[in-house]
Amino acid sequence: MFTGIITGMGQIAAVHPLGDTAAHGKRLVITPPAGYLDDVGLGDSIALNGACMTVTSMDPAAPQFTIDISAESLDKTTGLGAPGPINLEKALRANDRLGGHLVSGHVDGIGEVTQFAQVGESWELRVLAPRELARYLAYKGSITINGVSLTVNRIADSADGCEVSINLIPHTVENTALGTLKAGSRVNLEIDLIARYVERMVTAPAAAR
Predict the structure, then answer these.
(1) Fold exhibited by the domain 109-201
(2) How far is CA 38 from CA 28, 58, 177, in A?
(3) CA–CA distance, 140 with 151 (Å, rounded to integer)
(4) pLDDT tens-digit map of 68-97
(5) What single-letter DSSP state applies at residue 151?
(6) What torsion do the CA atoms of 95, 100, 103, 109 make, to the nearest 10 degrees?
(7) Which among 24, 30, 72, 209 would be 20 to 30 A from 171, CA to CA?
(8) 92 with 149: CB under 8 angstroms?
C-alpha cells in the first residue's frame, strides 16, 4: 500500500528487454536520489509513476536499483518503457502518516493531459480519464496521477470520457515529475480505493451482499 505522497524523483536510466518477443517484459534500471536506498531491501515494493513494482537488485553506492516489469504491466501503464523522469514512493509502513489517501499501486487506466498551465502562483492540470472511470470521479474526491495523490477540483463528462481539473501548488510541481507534463502526455490513473468498494456494495447482486 502507498499514500500517493512522492518520496523521491528518479530517472529510468536504462531499459533492457527480457526476451525477443512482444510477450517478454523489460528490466528497468532506476537512478533514485542519493541515500534513497538506505532503508530499502531486495524484494521491497516501490511505486514507479503509481505502479507497484518489486526491487530485484540494488546498488546503494551508485545509487541504482532494478525492477522487472511484465509485458502485461507495460500494456496497462504508460511512462515505464523508456528512459525518463519518474515518481518514486516507498511502500507504506504501519506507523507512517497517511498524508495523501490509500493507494494500492494498481493502475486503473491511462489518461491524457488536455491542459497544463500556470494560473497565478499555482498550476492547473486537466486530464481526460477513460469513460469507464468516470463513475469513480467526484468533486473534491481523490485521484492518483502518476503516483501522486491529488484532489479533484472540477469534473466535466463528455462522450470522450471525464475531464478532471486539478490545482497543483508549486511544491508539487517542483518535487514530482508532474512538472514535465504537457498537453498530450499520457498518465497513469488510479481511482480512490473506497469508491471501488462502494460501487461493489451498490451494484452486487442481493445474494452477494
Answers:
(1) Elongation Factor Tu (Ef-tu); domain 3 (2.40.30)
(2) 20, 11, 22
(3) 6
(4) 999 999 999 999 999 999 999 999 998 888
(5) E
(6) -170
(7) 30
(8) no
